[in-house]
Each structure stands twice: as structure tokens, then as C-alpha cells.
Amino acid sequence: MTAVEGTTVVVGEVEALAEDGLRWLLAAAREAADGGLGWPEKPSDDEPDWAFYSGTAGVVPVLLEAWRHFGDDSYGDAALRAARSLAASVDGVDHDSLYFGRTGVAVALRAVHDALDDTAAGAAADRALELVRSHFDGTRWGDLFELMGGNAGIGLGALAVGDADLAVLALEPYLRTAEKTPAGVTWAHRPDIESRLHHLSHGTLGIAYALAHVGRETGRADLVDLALAGVANVVARDEAGPDGFLVPHSDPQYRPDVIERISYGWCHGPAGDAQVFRLLRDVTADPAWSTLADRCWHTVTHSGIPQRLRPGFWDNNGRCCGTAGVLALAGDRIAEGQESYDFAGVLVADLAARATRDTDGARWSNVEPRDTPSDLEPHTGWAMGNAGIVRELLRFVRLSRGGDPTYAFSWPDQPPVRAQATEPIRPAGTDVTS
Hints:
The chain is mostly helical. It has 15 helices and ten strands. A two-stranded parallel sheet has the order 1-10. The protein has a two-stranded antiparallel ribbon with strand order 2-3. Strands 4-5 form a two-stranded antiparallel ribbon. Helix 3 runs parallel beside helix 5, helix 9 runs antiparallel to helix 10 and helix 11 runs antiparallel to helix 12. The radius of gyration is 20 Å and the shape is globular. The chain starts with 7 loop residues before the first strand and ends with a strand. The N terminus is likely disordered.
């Protein structure tokens, strides 16, 4: 394991860092004439971004997290104001997907309705999904045909909002578009692309996750069976067995000039693959899936992250393809009694060391080694910015104090932790103190 022996994490300081991150995030909001709030992708942008991935819809979950964590109604008020602006944006959003469009807006609005009893937000969520339904062409909603931008994510989002019929409508096209492979099935993530992507964000595992989850919740065994065939295709490509699990980004490699063939994060690596295996563990009750999740964790913890070993290796702090996304999996494993705090402590310490903190609060810059300067402007949202990072820091604080391991809002593609049979494994090489 690459955990640094003797790492000390002071939980109170982590909580203070999260508060500073929230302070910077709130200061970056744009206020509407009606009192609503919206967040740009980055502070230098003129207009709010509404997307789950990069903008306001992805900020809402961390506001709900902070409201529940601190018991501070100012965060709840900010979530209500954000919902007001999201509701006003529904008709003008130009994409229907979970991460980039209207379905993500609906999921955030429903979360505010459920947590804060805001009926206007609930009505706006319903209106958003009706618009999504109206744009379906019988097979898809656009070029993207995967979790982030296509049917799989729309199905997950619809189910999260309570529209099981739309969820099934979104997932059934995968039954007739699956391509057989020697080991299972796969799908093209967009038309006329030779490469087949394998992982959670844009590949076969993301589609399989949606098929398995929607299939279980709606009693559609054919969708679950198709999910298992998709996962079998990916598992057959493993290059790190028997102890680890590591599958390349795509075959043949998609855009090799700009995309690394091997990744370790949530989007295209074992940190995300493990979430699929956690779901299948719960769907099938087959212990083989827990073993695969363990193998993913072995690979992640032996990969060298969060060290920046070379340009392009690990340049992102965020939830999508960076350190916070690995911390999310670490927290799940701690909560289920499978892991000590050792590696999570290393991840948290790295996030703390890389934060910029001043009178404005705390924020994180990612790196693009091909650009000069290489440090990018801090982002606000879930994928690359403060919202995704702060959410994971707050859960780490609760876990360290023996508190609630769940989130205020369950992300559609992260399985909730199951009841643990044992207490979390206490720290060994990492000192986690109050």
C-alpha cells in the first residue's frame, strides 16, 4: 500500500477545511433578481451553469450535506434558493441527460423537495422529467448513449425521482442495441465510433450499473441479465489479476493523443468499477462481486495515487476523476467494516495539502500539464470542484467520529452502504484524531 506511515489527520481541522470550502463556494454564487442562486462552472464565468456535473444541480447536494452535518439552516436556505433558480432553468436547459442536462436538474430539485419539503421544487422536478420524456426518439436522446450523457443516466435519474416507467423506457433500448463479444456484450457510447469504452462514466460498466439497478427495482430480470453480460465483457479484459483489477480505458484506444490508456479514478478506473461490483453484490448476493470490489481496491491503493508521479498521472483533486472520488469509495469501505482509515487518511491529508486557503475560504486547482500555466482555475461543482470535494470531507469527518455513514442525498450511481456486521476498522498506520 502507498499509504504514508505516520500520517496524522486531525478531524476537527478537516471539518474546518470543509467549512472554508463551503464559504468559498457560497461566495461564488450568482444571485438572481428573484433571490435565487446559481453557480458558474468557475468564478470567472459570467453565467450560471445548471448541470449536475459542473454547476448548480451538483452544488445542491453539498448544501444539503452541510445543512444536515452542521445543523445550520443557512445551508438549507441556500439550497432552497438554488432550487428556485433550477426550477426557472428547466425549460431552457439544452440537454436531457443526468450529468449534463435536465434529468440532473430534476434529481437535484427532488432532493430539495424530499429534504426540505419544498413542493415547488418537487413540481419543477416532475415538469423537467415530462420534458425529458417528450424528447425521447424511441431509442435515445442524442449522440451519447451511456451514463453521463445518455440513456443509462436518464434511467438512473428517473428512478431516483420516482418515475420507474421512464427509467424502464430509457433502459429497454440497450436490449436491442447490445453488441455480442467473446465474453459478453458491449455498446457504442456514441454513433460511428469504433472504440468501445469500458468503465463507469461513458462505458459498458455505467450502462450495466443502470441496467442492474433499474432491473432490480422494477422486477425486470432481463435487464439484470443484460447487465451481467456487459460486466462479463469488461471483467474478461482485466490485466491485473488475480490480486488486482485493472481494465484499459477503451479498445481500440479512444483519442490516444489526449486520453491515458490506464486510469484509477471513478470515471475510467477501478475506483468506479468497484461501485458497480458493490451494486452487483447487493443485487445478486454472490460473494464473487465483493471479491472483485476488493481487487479494485487493491489496485487503487497500490497505484501510487494520490502522489503526482508524472505529468498526467494524477492531476485532479475532484470527485469525477480525482482524489475525492477515491475517498468516496474509501468511505464506503470504512462504513461497511472492510477497511481501516489508513488510505482514506492519506487521501484527506493530500486534499488538505493541495487546498488554497485564504480569507476567501478554501478551493482546489486541478492541473493540465499540456497547458502553461498548468494550474487551472478552481471550479465550483461536483465533478472537478469544491462541491464534490467538500461532500466527501464531511462524510470522512462523520465516519471518524462514529457518526452517520450515509449522505443527505444518495448519488444515483453510488450504492448506499449496507448495514455493517462489525465496527469500522480503526486506524493502523494513520493517526486519525479529534
